[in-house]
């Protein structure tokens, strides 16, 4: 019998955390505010091995829930889901119009000398290295990130990051472009910066938006690192 020459595609390695299974920060008739752990997808991937996600877990209990904002698998922190169409449309429009406020905490490689600043660099997907993104002045979409130093020491800097736009991998690519990759970033860090942490040291700490009832709501979850 001839040997089979075609290789069998292997499923991606994915071991999402199980504790806590779902962490609800706030719940009312319109929305859920959740604290997503690092290592868990926001939504399921195409491969059946990537079916477990925050959205999948939440929909088992709240079948009508819909994701409003997402975080990268390795980023932890605040995620917002709607429980009805009216709430979804109301809040999703705020994200689209950049009317929400968000802040993240990160630890980056190297000592950042200035105390604060703005990174304004357009981003696009890297066609030769998907799903990674890159700075692309010719074809990229506008992307802006404000930042300020929280602490320096041990050859690293703790930053607070304020994304003014919501591009994929924005904070990760902007920090790499600034010469200070986020520790543990499997996509953009190398060498010591990659090996300095078992997880990506990026956490969505604060989220502010207008609730469908008209009130301004602000949520924070403590940084786990």
UniProtKB/TrEMBL annotation:
Catalytically driven reaction(s): uridine(32) in tRNA = pseudouridine(32) in tRNA; uridine(746) in 23S rRNA = pseudouridine(746) in 23S rRNA
EC number(s) stated in the UniProt entry for this protein: 5.4.99.28, 5.4.99.29
Entry-linked PANTHER family: DUAL-SPECIFICITY RNA PSEUDOURIDINE SYNTHASE RLUA, MITOCHONDRIAL RNA PSEUDOURIDINE SYNTHASE
InterPro entries on file: PsdUridine_synth_cat_dom_sf, PsdUridine_synth_RluA-like_CS, PsdUridine_synth_RsuA/RluA, RluA_PseudoU_synthase
Any one GO biological process: tRNA processing
Protein name in the entry: Dual-specificity RNA pseudouridine synthase RluA
Gene from which the chain derives: rluA
Lineage, broadest ranks: Bacteria, Pseudomonadati, Pseudomonadota, Alphaproteobacteria, Hyphomicrobiales
Keywords: Isomerase, rRNA processing, tRNA processing
Species name: Limoniibacter endophyticus
Function of the protein: Dual specificity enzyme that catalyzes the synthesis of pseudouridine from uracil-746 in 23S ribosomal RNA and from uracil-32 in the anticodon stem and loop of transfer RNAs.
